[in-house]
Amino acid sequence: MVHLSASSLLLAAGILPTLAYGAGLNTAAVALGKLYFGSATDNGELSDSAYVTQLSNTQDFGQITPGNSQKWDATEPSQNVFTYTNGDTIAKLAKTNGQKLRCHNLVWHNQLPNWVTSGSWTNATLIAALKNHITNVVTHYKGQCYAWDVVNEALNEDGTYRTSLWYNTIGEAYLPIAFAAAAAADPSVKLYYNDYNIEYSGAKATGALRIVKLVQSYGVKIDGVGLQAHFIVGSTPSRSNQASTMAAYTALGVEVAITELDIRMTLPSTAALLAQQSTDYASSVGACVDTKGCVGVTIWDWTDKYSWVPGTFSGQGAACPWDSNFVKKPAYTGILSALGGSATSTATTTLVTSVSSTSTTTSTATTSTSTSTGVAQHWGQCGGSGWTGPTTCASPYTCTYSNAWYSQCL
Ligand SMILES: O[C@@H]1[C@@H](O)[C@H](O[C@@H]2CO[C@@H](O[C@@H]3CO[C@@H](O)[C@H](O)[C@H]3O)[C@H](O)[C@H]2O)OC[C@H]1O
């Protein structure tokens, strides 16, 4: 038996479902008082016009982040030679779309050019190179960024400092030095410390709190803590733990944002994993909703087609709210419901089809317009607001349904 995706089945049958949403992710976030819901992107993806159309849909995305093109190796590949072409492409797209730009990142131990990693540095020469880099890049993007991730991932899991080139050569002072250089170059931009595994209470979150206090103790501006939130399905921290950890940061007078949210799974994906992923996305986004000082959420690209996960974590993937065919997964509805939105769907005709390698069965064609406020449903499951039938269905998948939002069984 070969199962095709729902969109493939509908398209193969010549039937285009028309789905209209009462609110997209960004619209819903802004309605709650957040500044944005956004997505990372990258230059290679921008030649895919269908991808760009969705990325530019400000109902869903009010903010974008360049995934790579503002990093050190991209912007200063040779010492004091700065290249901004790729970063500018994404900044221009944000401006054209009226989206905020989160700028990422200035100081990290990864994606450094050879001249930095293999240089022969003293404390003084490395500080000079650090300041020169930050001053140039932040000045170039002055007025264009909502925020800069000034320092990325300075911590080990136990909350001690990562023994990077920066820490080994300059010591912890490289953090306030970096923030001061960024503040001098663009006094208006928000300046963030950004890291992973600081979304929940523990030694690393305590380390991030220490960094905020350290920068403040130098009398230097730090405006926010970025919670990367690269999570694994079924192992994410609880909503209340994420919210209380956010509150610990905001108690220091800084804002927080979820900056790189994705929730990966061991492949292949299953209906159960996708349902759990939806719950997990809702927990993280809900924690931001619960926290007054959480200004927004950025997912680390919106589609599995371009996710960094499969290339980085062997055997894992399906981490984004849209699949690789740009079809919304249950995670989309989970996020939307956490943002207080509901999916209003209008299905002019829905064909329920099961395709096997030897036969095709077709059942149930109907017209339905309804609003679902229930839990996301997915292939092989039925449910949602008003649903009174069984919650699962088996081959030949002949459930009838009372609403059209993922409640049909395919
Ligand atoms: O071959 C490289 C390729 O490996 C590189 O991949 C990028 C690596 O960084 C990813 O973003 C980071 C993900 O998690 C956090 O740790 C960081 O803050 C993020 O910057 C990015 O998505 C990948 O595309 O890309 C360049 C290729 O030359």
From TrEMBL:
Residues 26-338 form the GH10 domain. It catalyses: Endohydrolysis of (1->4)-beta-D-xylosidic linkages in xylans. The active site is at residue 260. Pfam families: CBM_1 (PF00734), Glyco_hydro_10 (PF00331). The keyword Signal applies. GO terms for cellular component: extracellular region. Pathway: Glycan degradation; xylan degradation. It is found in: Secreted. The keyword Chaperone does not apply. Keywords: Carbohydrate metabolism, Glycosidase, Hydrolase, Polysaccharide degradation, Secreted, Signal, Xylan degradation. InterPro entries: CBD, CBD_sf, GH, GH10, GH10_AS, GH10_dom. Coiled coil: none annotated. Its EC number is 3.2.1.8. Residues 374-410 form the CBM1 domain. This is Beta-xylanase.
